[in-house]
């Protein structure tokens, strides 16, 4: 590497060394310029319009489902007796899981002093917010008449003077997810304040200056402000860390507190949290790979970032695989006839294809990431991140549908498949997610500018002699 | 000596190290109404300015405890006092079941206190501030470093402070209008 400094310095090609967190040749001005110009450029790239139009088109499916659902009732969805939970809870858990990577990257990696989090935390946090918004769609509309159903979700003095049943994990869910959404939003917005000030000071047109100025709340980069800001940011990270773990733990309680075979297991909380991080990192990769390509951000989201994310995915994937193994082992070891039947039914019953596809996607496929050449191949990482997303969706399908379809009494067995409206709702939320992401990338800095400045050499001077 | 309508003097630096040294010297010289401006947080500046403890952690602790009491209190009041209802034969006061929501409200109140407290201590939102009158100050959010000594500082003297700031290696020192 030392013999070819010219190649390494060439800023137009991706960095020659895969180990750097910021490409060579950047200073405070170029970092600011590069990231803020994505937002401030006058002409919106045509690629953005195409992507936005497609996403917005797909989003209309959600409108179609909501209108049908509200007029005709939740019977348009597939759940039946005995499979009372179908796509709605499946997609809810899937989306909430994806959301976890954002908080993990911003909070836990901050506390662990992992500097590589810096260039991916902002859009991972945005992704969290959008994923939570998609997740919230399902429980809200699953009530059929959401405006009549609020009193048993939220504790407020209502005309029936009824209160939520706080002994139910579904109410824990309401508290966990709404707290998570609020805290994630605050974390994201606090991180944005200094960058909004940068946009305010660099925007050319008056309306944008005013808008960003209002959002920046008069931030002026005062050291006295930074001092409190740093404290607040670390405290938020410290609070978000137990929060993110509690959220998917509570989501897993929705199942584990029930008595259905395949749900009633103490391994659920840790295994769900690991699965959430696994799915979340897959989604961060799915987003960051096209983003860095399209906007030429290879200097900021380097090969090292992608490789680290792949490693986290591999590690959490192995934890998830351990969870599957333990499920099967405990079914055998417990000597419980229902548990044994449950796992056997998953492997060979009517939904066997789903189970083995899940094992392929979540156990076999991620193990290819042990190989360095595959782990550092961008197209392969993109592919594997999609495989993992599919795998995590299948995992929830297997847990929910196979367990409910074959419970204790053969007389109450049944089958489930998603209807047109189930699929439209799922694809529609994908459209919502993508639409929000496109708007975010256009109007807000997708990479934290001020944190990128701290990554540059010489940013933090040594303790000076006074 | 100062002049009416003057907020203070603003020195401009192009290197972070220059600002840190200058802030240290200004603090040493006895100026206290001093502020430094940088495009990113610099721990060295806090020390140079003599900033020690933020009041925020204590506020956040109080917020968290308030959240815990509020959350658990709500559950207890709603399920035991206001409308006791037998659900599946479980006790009205179901301690283990009450923990998750109370935990979430603890985090929620603490996080709200952290954000709102940070803004309140910093006095934000503050749409107008005299430092914005310095023409190049927009660069404080890009790649320039600033140091401001306020005219209300007892040691402030327009000419002396001016020449002192020039001696610190500033690119330029300008007057900040009120």
Account of the 3D structure:
The complex is a heterodimer of chains A (466) and B (178). In chain A, helix 10 (303-333) packs across helix 11. The two termini of chain A are 39 Å apart. Mean pLDDT of chain A is 86; it is low at 1-17. Chain A is 68% helix and 0% strand. By secondary structure, chain A is mostly helical. Chain B has 178 residues and is of the alpha+beta class. Chain B is 47% helix and 13% strand. Chain B has helices spanning 16-28, 43-48, 56-82, 95-122, 158-166; strands at 6-13, 34-37, 145-150, 172-177. A 4-stranded antiparallel beta sheet of chain B has the order 2-3-1-4, covered by helices on one side. In chain B, helix 3 packs antiparallel against helix 4. Chain B starts with 5 loop residues before the first strand and ends with a strand. Classes of the chains: A mainly alpha (466), B alpha+beta (178).
Produce a short descriptive summary.
With 466 residues, chain A is mainly alpha-helical.
What is the structural class of chain A?
A: mainly alpha
Assembly status: heterodimer
Largest interface: A-B, 70 and 76 residues
Radius of gyration of chain A: 24 Å
The rounded Rg of chain B comes to: 25 Å
Helix count of chain A, per DSSP?
Answer: 16
Helix percent band of chain A? 55-70%
Biggest sheet of chain B, strands in spatial order? 2-3-1-4
Helices and strands of chain A, in order, run as HHHHHHHHHHHHHHHH
What gap, in angstroms, lies between the N and C termini of chain A? 39 Å
Shape of chain B: elongated
Q: Which percent band covers the strand fraction of chain A?
A: under 5%
> What is the average of the pLDDT values of chain B?
87
Q: How large is the share of residues in beta strands of chain B? A: 5-15%
Biggest sheet architecture of chain B: 4 strands, antiparallel
The largest sheet of chain A, given as strand count, sense and whether it forms a barrel, is:
none
Uncertain parts of chain B = none
Find the count of extended strands of chain B (DSSP E, 2+ residues): 4
